[in-house]
Amino acid sequence: xxxxxxxxxxxxxxxxxxxxxxDGLPVVDVDVGPSGVANPNAGHRFVALPSGRNTLVARVExxxxxxxxxxxxxxxxxxxxxxxxxxxxxxxSDGSTLVLLAPRPRFPRRxxxxxxxxxxxxxxxxxLTLRGDFSFDAMSPDGRRxxxxxxxxPDDVLQYDVRALxxxxxxxxxxxxxxxREPDEEMNGxxxxxAMSPDGRxxxxxxxxxxxxxxxxxxTTGRSAxxxxxxxxxxxxxxxxxxxxxxxxxxxxRLRNGAETVAAVDTRTWEAAPVVDDAGGRxxxxxxxxxxxxxxxGWLVYRSVSRRRASSTSFGGATSV
Length: 321
Prior knowledge:
Layout: H1 2-16, E1 37-39, E2 44-51, E3 54-61, E4 67-73, E5 97-101, E6 111-118, E7 124-131, E8 133-139, E9 145-151, E10 160-166, E11 171-172, E12 191-196, E13 202-207, E14 214-219, E15 224-229, E16 243-246, E17 252-257, E18 260-266, E19 271-274, H2 284-311
Antiparallel strand pairs: 1-2, 2-3, 3-4, 5-6, 6-7, 8-9, 9-10, 10-11, 12-13, 13-14, 14-15, 16-17, 17-18, 18-19
């Protein structure tokens, strides 16, 4: 009975509490909403809802909606959104650690606070406050390292670095995370959507980019990154509607616009290529082959008719009936 009452309270809070300033992204307010962040392997999700000046954190069964655990922590915190489509993060892939972010009151902010919770019992392990403006980006599979977006200009939200934070010591790595192949190239753009590799190691983010769209592939274990340019999508009006799909083995990353695949990335080589297919996902070679068969069939029919006409014509030029 108690869990049902709490579940009702969670739903009502999610419906009637406004989501203003509910994330770490600097340009617009993006709220992950009552869906929270899910642990697909365990079949439950975590939600964080305002409770006066504090925050109610609950673990909810995805199928039944039953509340399996809850706790109130001091201060206002939220589950971080990592892209403007509302992609949620903050839960390590091994299910051990949940990280919450203090809501952003304005841009820039002087300091940023994170609450690190034990995802099993929802006890607060630590509270980390950093000087400067940060938003949450990703977490290592074991929850020991956070990756943060550090906004370095008070006037330009597109000036930022990706930094690694050791959860146990609270120390930031002084070196930004960059693509080792292009260490001097700046990464600028708005994060549009996010997907994780099946093992939780790689965080894939689509950015609109200043010059062209690109995919930022962040290695949360190796503290490295790859930037994959998508030049052919420059100026694409549906860029904000695109989403990722990742194959079960993690080797094939695809960017889709509805049912249409617009880019395919081999995560072993980081080679990206445009893909054009129909709503059924069939390769364009199907249509090329089909067209070839039709043309060949038409040519055979034409030759057959020509031969019949030739055989029915006399040597004198008079055509028989």
